[in-house]
Amino acid sequence: MADTDVQNGAESAAKVRTLADLARIAGVSAGTVSRALAGNSLVNTKTREKIEAIAREHGFRPNQMASKLRRQKTGVIGVAIPLGHDVRQQISDTFFMTLLGYLADELTEKGYDLMLRRVIPAQDEDWLDRFIGSGMVDGVIVIGQSDQFERIEDVADGYLPMVVWGNHQEGQRHCVVGSNNRLGGKLAAERLIASGAKSLAFLGDTQPIEFAARYAGAKEVAAKMGVAIRPLPTHLSPERTGEEIAKHLREIEGKVDGIFAATDTIAVTCLKELRERGMEVPGQIKIVGFDDLPISSQTMPPLTTVRQDIAAGAKGLVDLLLRRLEGEDTESLVLPPHLVLRETA
Fold it and tell me: What residues have CB less than 8 Å from 163, skipping those under 6 apart?
């Protein structure tokens, strides 16, 4: 019996090789384990003592290189893109590439390298804790809240050097840089109605926080003006967008004469589908996009859109993160959107 106990103990100890192994036994995240073993006061005493006791029991010693990196500067900023709402969306999406380009420029100018991760939260619930606890980055920028708002909030309680591109909500704890999406939605709806649209559709997924705010703003204006607006779920994964838009256009033909696209990418695909159907823009149907990506001025006809200043956003993300790396608990930065009038509405 004693031999069996010794064998089981040895097997158990052998399994505890990483922070993730210890986190599994303790029933907490890898990030919490990392902070507890580093003596971070943000981990409550009871939890820290429990983790330390389990570590001693299993003879666990944190990786020395990781510990060294946590104590010193790595010169690397982690950039994570969580895709919880649309797992098939690609980083090659024009918006991501535009923002990443500006971020890379800003970080390089400040003397930092960039480490990029595309994350599928359904496959790794502790994706953010693992990234932070890896010891490979000095701080983290998260691009988009997706459906991970609560996860980001939890991490923000104990980790200061993190800034998120997304939508700001009153009372939230994580630091955000992003546009006033609700106001942007209002601008889009106001333009469509002012240009003569009598019935509107919103093309986009209303689950992600940013898109939900854009739709809410448009819906508010439409209600005040007595104009109907219907949401038409549209994903941003390349193999689905065109198919979904084609289906939507068949359903709304003759019923809707104004489209607010959640992104310029969706708007550009919509223009292509309308052209193939022989529908005139803005004669038969008007379109307003959102982002003001470079391609929006090159479409036929050029796209009317709501501009969010992506370059200023990237600068804000980096500036706030560097201030937080110095220990400052910064406020969020909400950028004003602007309507860019072209020819589609």
Answer: 139, 140, 141, 142, 175, 176, 177, 317, 320, 321, 324, 330
